[in-house]
Amino acid sequence: MAIAIVDYGMGNLHSVSKAVERLGVEALVTGDRAEIMKADGIILPGVGAFGDAMEHLRESGLGDVMKEAAAAKRPLLGICLGMQLLFGSSEEHGQHDGLGILPGKVIRFADGDYKVPHMGWNRLEFLQKDNPLLAGLAEGHVYFVHSYHVLPEVKSDLIAVTDYGQPITAIVGRGSVYGMQFHPEKSGELGMELLGQFLKLCAERKNDHSLEQSQH
Amino acid sequence: MLAKRIIPCLDVKDGRVVKGVNFENLRDAGDPVELAALYDREGADELVFLDISASVEGRQTMVEVVRKTAGEIAIPFTVGGGISQVDDMKRILRAGADKIGINTAAVLNPQLIADGARRFGSQCIVVAVDAKYNEAWGEWEVYTHGGRKASGIHALEWVRKAEALGAGEILLTSMDADGTKDGFDISLTSAVADAIRIPVIASGGAGTKDDFVEVFTKGKADAGLAATIFHYKEISIPELKLDLKLKGVEIR
Q: Tell me, what's the ipTM?
């Protein structure tokens, strides 16, 4: 099994790919459409500004590849900015269109008593305990670093939240598409478990798929 | 609510951990990568590497240590020591570190804070401050060059300026408390925490588990950092975290 880590010139991919490898799965850091579509799962990482990231995704054509992968029900996980990019739009430094794979928008934390960026270990609250991504896991702390957060339009897309003055979107998912606002690769044991769950879903899909093919 | 963080600090020289480390279950106690992985397993929330190499070769070795560490641990880590340019920051961050610590270089050239924050984001820039009480002033003074030079700058003024320039966090070391094991400098820590809105990592003086309770409550610190008491197992991180939890401190 191999996971494609999408390289579109934003952020550090080393930690994510090493985390996948530590879980015993091959990680392929790539910006090549064929390689991405051939992989058993896709991770869209990202650190930096939303507008820059979308520009990179558009110029490289990788934004379309992400949409194509989602439509083909490829397991896709967006991490941090990578999760935000899955949504319709962001107000980070102006208005920007996102990939629109999931409905919703990215907004700035309101000014108030809470420090921005939201940085540090915060506790996950599971809203969908029966979601396959959370199977067998207990709620705990994970590591966040972000100044903008996601408001999903569809409530059932929200899998887990964290409390930072208000409930903040932490994990989203619909079908084979998932997103994590925190960094699972920097979130200790629970982070590695969550990443491991995603890899497990990729493996299950691969097996179902090869089973179907052998029956035909 | 954010959890309070426990941060072991590793002094690294030419790619090796210095200030002896006393762990039986390590194959190589001088290997920073192996020690970092152990602290991750034990529940440390973050790590700080302080590079005390004096040579160019030593600094190159540090980049390699960072790259290997990033592949082995699943918690964030900061690298400080001898970083004086945006290019140095870039090299370390690209190797996989999450944050950069700057100390003397920031005092000599405060613009470095702003440049780093603009380029990599405030969350990457940790300004380390070594402070010592100045009797004549009745206030704390900033020291540079590893605590050897008095700067003439008031610590509370400096942390406010660092925040305004874009620092994401302050790593505050009390030179008065450092090495005493008599507890963190609570008055310094709480004065700094009251002066700014960015998180404060308290360092220097930790000797017991209760010292951490105190610095998180009375000291208003967001994180507590220590070196030898963790390296020598005088305090075990799992026990410390359990103790903090029992005392009502929000902990991972």
A: 0.89
